[in-house]
Design brief:
- By secondary structure, this protein is α+β, with helices and mostly antiparallel strands.
- It is built from two helices and ten strands, in the order βββαββββαβββ.
- The strands form two sheets. It has an eight-stranded antiparallel beta sheet with strand order 4-5-6-7-3-8-9-10, with helices on one face.
- Helix 1 (about 35-45) runs antiparallel to helix 2.
- It starts with a strand and ends with a strand.
C-alpha cells in the first residue's frame, strides 16, 4: 500500500474515508456499466489511484429498489457505490472511497457531478493516521458547488 515514509524509515499510512449521499438530477440508464466504468476510470486518474482488480457491477435483485451496486478494489482499499432509481422518486446515489493513500475529496465531487449530474448531496470525510489526530468534516452542496463545510470533530 502507498504511504509516506517516516523519518525513521517506518511506513505511515494516511487513512481517508469519503462518503457521499446524493439526489441526482436525472435517472441513470438501467444498464449503467458504461457510465460507471467511465466514472471509475476518471476518478482513478483524478485521485492517482491504481486498480487492484476488475470493476464489478451488480444489478439490483429487489425491484422495490431498482438500480445497481459496484465495487472497484484499489491497491489502497476500495471505491464503491449504490444507485437507486425508483420510478416517481428522485434517483439516489450512495458512494464511498476508502484509501490509506491521501486523496482530495474536493477533486472527487466534480467527477461525480460530470458523470451523474448531482442534485443536493451531503458527505462526510474522515481522515486519520496512527499517532495523529482524527478529523471528521461534514459537507453539503448542490452539483459541484460546496454550500457548507464544517469540522464535526477532531481528537487523538
Amino acid at each position: 500500500m502507498n504511504g509516506t515514509r517516516s523519518p525513521k524509515g517506518g511506513l505511515v499510512l494516511h487513512h481517508g474515508l469519503f462518503v457521499i449521499d446524493a439526489d441526482l438530477r436525472s435517472v441513470l440508464p438501467p444498464q449503467g456499466e458504461g457510465l460507471i466504468a467511465g466514472l471509475v476510470d476518471e476518478l482513478l486518474t483524478t485521485i492517482s489511484m491504481e486498480r487492484l482488480g476488475p470493476l464489478e457491477i451488480f444489478p439490483a435483485t429487489d425491484m422495490r429498489a431498482p438500480g445497481y451496486s459496484f465495487i472497484q478494489p484499489i491497491t489502497t482499499s476500495h471505491i464503491c457505490g449504490h444507485y437507486f432509481g425508483k420510478p416517481g422518486k428522485h434517483p439516489h446515489f450512495h458512494f464511498d472511497i476508502y484509501s490509506c493513500k491521501k486523496f482530495s475529496w474536493r477533486k472527487v465531487i466534480p467527477v461525480l457531478d460530470r458523470h451523474l449530474s448531482l442534485g443536493e448531496w451531503s458527505a462526510n470525510c474522515i481522515t486519520r493516521k496512527i499517532g495523529a489526530k482524527r478529523e471528521c468534516r461534514s459537507i453539503r452542496g448542490v452539483g459541484r458547488e460546496i454550500a457548507e463545510e464544517r469540522r464535526v470533530w477532531r481528537n487523538v
